[in-house]
Amino acid sequence: MQERLSFYKKRESAVHRLNPLSKLTLALGIVFVSFLSPYYWTPHLLILFAVIPLSLLGKVLREYINAMLRLILPTAGFLFIMQALFQPLEGVELFRFGFLHPTQESVLFAFANATRIVVMVSSFTIFLLTTHPNELMTDLTRRGLPGQFAYVIISTLQIIPQMQAKAQTIIAAQRSRGLDTESTFFKRAGSLIPLVGPLVFGSLVEVEERAIAIEARGFTSTRVKTSLNSIPDTNKDKLIRWSLIVIIIVTLASRIWLS
Hints:
Elements: H1 20-36, H2 42-57, H3 61-86, H4 104-130, H5 133-142, H6 147-176, H7 185-191, H8 193-216, H9 235-258
C-alpha cells in the first residue's frame, strides 16, 4: 500500500542502497551545478553523464523515460516555446510573424533554461523513484530534523500519488454507476465535474484522519523516538555527500570568478 502512495519502485540496485540523505544531496547537487555553472553545455553533460547513468544504475530507466515523455518534456517544451517567442533579447532575428520575432539569442536562452528544467525535474524524479518516503523521514528525524518539518516533506512527496490513487478509485466507482469516461473529448471533460467534489472532500477528510492518526502515535511527543528500521550511513555515503558539497562550492566560485 505504501508503494502505491509514492513514486518509489522497489529494486535491488546500488542507488537504492544509498542513504536517503545521500540521494537527496545528489539530486540537489545536480540541480545546483546545472543552474550555477557558467558554461552553456553543463546541463547537457549532466543529462548524458549523470541523470541517464543514475537511472540505469538504479534500474528505473523505464519509469524515468515514461515520466520524461509524459511530464518533463511537455513542460520543458512549453517553457522553451514561451521564452523563445516572447523573451525580448536583442540579436539576430530568425523570422518575423506578426508581433513574434524570435532572435537567435532568445532561442539559445530558452533552450538553456528548458534544459535546466529537464535536469532539475529528472534528478528529483530519479530520487523519488529510488527513495522510499518512510526511509527518508526516518533518516531526517534521526539526524535531528523536527518531526513537523519531516512530515511536511513526506506529505509533499506523497500528495500526487495519493490524489492519483483516490481519483482512480472515484473514476472506477462512477463508471460502475454508468458514467461515460471513454467517449469524445467534450463528454469526458464534462464527466470530470462529478469527480471533483468527491476528490476534494475525500482529500480533506483524509487529512483530518491522518492528523488524528499521527497524534495517536505520539507525533508531538518530546521524548526520543526509536525506529524498527535501521537506515545505514556508510563511509561511501559520507564521501558522496562531501564530494557533492565541494563540487557545488567550486561551481559557485567559478560562476562568481567568470561573471
